[in-house]
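Work Package 3 (structural annotation) set out to generate three-dimensional models for the target panel prioritized at the project kickoff. During this period the team completed the workflow that converts sequence records into discrete structure tokens, so that structures can be stored uniformly alongside our sequence database. As a representative example, we reproduce one entry of 255 residues exactly as it appears in the project archive.
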Amino acid sequence: MLFGKEKNKDLLIDFINKALPYKKVIDIQYLHTNLDAKTPDDKKGIVDVVCTDKNGSKYIIEMQNSKFKDFSKRCVYYSSKIFSDQIYKGRKYGNLSEVICISITNYVMFPNKKDFISIHKIMDIKTYENDLTDLSFAFIELPKFKKNSENRNIDEWCDFLINASTYKSYPTNNPIIRKAYKILEKCDWTPFEKRIYESYKKEMLDKQAIEDELIEQSKIKIAQNLINVSNLNDDEIFKVTELSKQEVMNLRHKI
């Protein structure tokens, strides 16, 4: 809704320019988000948003809400795939355009980094020169973000992404950000957009329910094993597994 629709591309342009101050994107064209497999053994990919600017530079925008162990590798894979796919259009190697992946995560990816935004490029490890400029990555770790009075570039977008649902009014005079707040108001969505949203929300809730059930079953299995092979009492097993004391007692009685 925010970044993937033609009518809202001014939001995406602003976001890219704020996330990457060294880029001056004026206009974009949306590309297919399905990265088709080229061979039977190839892996198909689907990205959230991909677009290109007038200079041919490609931008992937990814949002990752829950922690994904190999997310950084997935970003590299998708970027490499979009980069290499350009050759199928009959272009020479020298004409291949750069690919930049911007990822917004709702969890900490790099615990040793203090800043909430980090930009990664291919560097010469001795001179730190960036000679290979075709692939680069920006990661925005929302949990690290702290609103400050300077409101530097991307700050207002981060505040929006974190707190939009809690604000009762638009805390900004920035017309771009005000438009973003307006887009989130479902009363202005078309019936089709509402159905898509509800379908996606149901899918996420179902997925979360399955994950919760797996976690619960894992706790029960651990508790059963501890009851069988250890001398731990119910309170100690309760602390280890985070099951309720009643659940632990019931398991002991069953065994």
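The chain has two domains: 6-188, 209-254.
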